[in-house]
Amino acid sequence: MSTLAPLLRQRLRRDAVQLIIWIGGTTALAALGSPTVQSSYGDEQERLGLLATVLANPVILLFRGLPSGAGEDQMVVFLLLPWLLILAALMSSFLAVRHTRGDEEGGRLELLSATPAGRWLPTATTMIHGILANVVLGALVTAVFLGAGDPVAGSVLVGLSCALVGILFFGVALVAAQLMQTSRGANSLATWVLVVTFVLAGIGNALGTPSDDLTRMRSSCLTWVSPFGWAENTRAFDEDAWGPIALLAVTAVVLLGAALALQAGRDLGGAYVRERAGRADARGWFSSNGALVGRLSASAIVGWVVGGLLSGVLATSLSGVVTQLGTENPAVVDILEKLSGGSDDLERGIVVVFFVMVGILAACAGVQAVARARQDEAAGVAEAVLATPVDRVRWLSAYVAMGLIAAVLTIAAGVVGALVGAVSATDAGALARDAVIAGAGQLLPAALFVGLTAVVFVLAPRLTIALGWVLVALGATIGLFGPLFGMSESVTRLSPFAAAPAPTASGVDANGVWWVAAVTVVAAALALMRRRELAAAG
User: Whose CA is closest to 289, among 369, 429, 386?
Assistant: First the structure.
């Protein structure tokens, strides 16, 4: 056990920047969101109006938490908790895979196992590392709510929920790392589990039973198959239920134990899910670097395209329902106008809001495609490719091009979904026009984030994955939630998603000049790559 402390220090030093970004960003969201939500919804009638709208159209709960009352603290939890949980889960998933399957794939774990650390101590150190990171995150979130003057029990429940959901998904990722042959596969499996359980919690909430006064929603049984649903059913600042906390803790312990049991049953470098055998001879079109990148990126892009399709369907199919509710509740109109940047038409505003979400998904697809360049560089794949006539600029260009293609496909799927959702609408033509314009506008911020990630990869390769995702998360938070947090329009427009061209009654509002920035950063990344040396993993 004398090697435990050095191993733990090594992990903390290696992850210092990434943990600061993840934990700091999550804490900042809580610190910024809590007071601004309270100031934006300080009037009880506004809160009652919003909850009445949500409970009358529960589909909105797919993207929010679980309503548990009209108090200020309860409204903060309703709007913020799901996003705090997602950030904790993503941080934990990436951390777990990096220090298990990632180190195993890179050969580092084999070297460690040959030392007195043996086979089990690195895994135990990784578990301690992940648990400590989540405990710190939970403690800071709790401190934010306590600092805002919120009740102790509810504040502790929110922080504990974030920590335990993070530890639970840390366990999910550890299990995925045992099952899958590569870190890429493990990350994909863990992320899919996260997305599916998040959606299940939203559907379970939407299928629940509203209270008679339209301020609370009782979840359906479906919610109880999701860790996100368990955390939301703690109902902080309302019932302050501790039962779901125990369920989260027990499940996390079971997953950690399952990861250890699975590790005991396989050899180093082995996996329970074998990769499919490839063809004996590659097809002719597969001989280029671009085709290789496309083949490796295809499965991940499909997930983002499906998300874009579903968001597009909701954009037009919900517009009529929300408009009807808005005419009956002025508070709803005010909220939606803030979210859509002051759109002159409520239905058009709904389309703009949903296509901001499609733009965020497109940016995520693009960032993931470019971040794969860092994964291939760290794994040694880039070195093998660059030993051929492919030069550095052409090599990086393939990832940037794939990022742009992924963004285009995601937004195109969103537009197709919007056209499908608008088929039964009375003003289908106008909704289709708005969807096409809003979708085309979101191509520009998505391209910008592809370029920014490429620049980070060239200048600070080891920060590519963490910083690329943080930039998207920051832009998404400001663009999608800035108006709800009481940010001024000038601050909200700092987000490329909010500054994207959007439809108006007379044509198109061109908004900012982010498209110039997008072209500039992509060109800068490719130019700088010409002289950049390969950076090893670490």
Answer: 386
CB 36 within 8 A of CB 486: yes
DSSP H helices in 57-151: 72-97, 103-106, 108-113, 121-147
Assign 537 a pLDDT band (cuts: 50, 70, 90).
low
pLDDT (0 to 100) of residue 202: 83
Picking from 25-34, 47-56, 57-66, which range would have the lowest pLDDT averaged per residue?
57-66
Please, which residues have CB within 8 angstroms of residue 519's CB and are 6 or more apart in sequence?
451
Task: Give the integer Cα–Cα distance in Å for 346 and 340.
Answer: 9
Structure tokens at 412: 């195109």
Contact 332, 50 (CB under 8 A): yes
Look at the alpha carbons of 223, 226, 231, 234 in this order and tell me if their dihedral is positive or negative.
positive
The three-point CA angle 78-82-86 to 5° equals 165
Q: Phi first, then psi: what are they for 377, rounded to 5°?
A: -65, -45
Residues 219/121, Cβ–Cβ less than 8 Å: no
Instruction: Give the residue from 216, 250, 249 showing the smallest Cα distance to 233.
Output: 216
CA distance to 158, 209, 211, 309, 429, per residue, from 206 (Å): 22, 8, 13, 20, 29
307: amino acid identity, one letter: G
Q: How many residues does the chain have?
A: 538
C-alpha distances in Å from residue 414, one per residue of 314, 350, 421: 9, 14, 10
CA distance 197 to 93: 14
Widest Cα–Cα separation across the chain: 72
Read off φ and ψ for residue 217, nearest 5 degrees: -125, 130
Structure tokens at 366: 């693009």
Q: CB–CB of 232/82 below 8 Å? A: yes
Cα 20 to Cα 209: distance, rounded to the nearest angstrom:
40
Q: Say if residues 131 and 170 touch (Cβ distance below 8 Å).
A: yes
pLDDT in tens, 129-175: 999 999 999 999 999 999 888 899 999 999 999 999 999 999 999 99
Q: Packing angle between helix 428-459 and helix 464-476, nearest 10 degrees?
A: 150
Asked whether 7 and 117 are in contact (CB, 8 A), the reply is yes
Q: Which of 37, 35, 49, 116 is nearest to 75 (CA)?
A: 37
What's the whole-model pTM score? 0.78
Average pLDDT over residues 445-456: 89
The C-alpha angle 473, 476, 482, rounded to 5 degrees, equals 120
In angstroms, rounded to a whole number, what is the distance separating the alpha carbons of residues 485 and 416? 31
Q: In Å, how far from its chain's centre is CA 517?
A: 24
Tokens 């044509």 correspond to what residue?
Answer: 507
Rounded Cα distance between 106 and 182, Å, is: 10
Spatial separation of the C-alpha atoms in residues 351 and 313, rounded to whole Å: 10
Q: Of 411, 405, 410, 381, which Cα lies nearest the Cα of 501?
A: 411
Q: Are 431 and 319 in contact, with CB atoms under 8 Å apart?
A: yes
